[in-house]
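Subject: Sanity check before I submit

Could someone independently write out the structure tokens for this chain? I want to compare against mine line by line before I put it in a report. The sequence has 123 residues.
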Amino acid sequence: DVQLVESGGGSAQAGGSLRLSCAASGNTYGLDCMGWLRQAPGKEREGVVRRVRSSGSDRPLYSDSVKGRFTVSYDNAKNILYLQMSSLKPEDTAMYYCAVKKWSCPVTDNDYNYWGQGTQVTV
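---
Independent answer below. Compare away.
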């Protein structure tokens, strides 16, 4: 199994920045595709960034709501996924989750194999 632990959430003012981290541990062999998702109270889960390949072979896909403000990166040596969030808006307030899938990218967000416990971001 793969364990995912997110960190870096908290409170920020509008216009501010936060960086989220997601550390993967356990049997990470075959870990291929990662993403960040978020869910605000009363709203559906939203994919923030998808298709983050551990190989770096694909360009990540950002949702329109965060494009140009959020940047994802992956430290392959440490198995840590990052989400740099800038120009934060109140509508970015949500619980943020990282998720990963082995051997391929998920067709839908429900197809991720492993999920973190989430980290709260409040703007």
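---
OP: Matches mine. For the report I'm noting this point. The chain has a mean pLDDT of 96.
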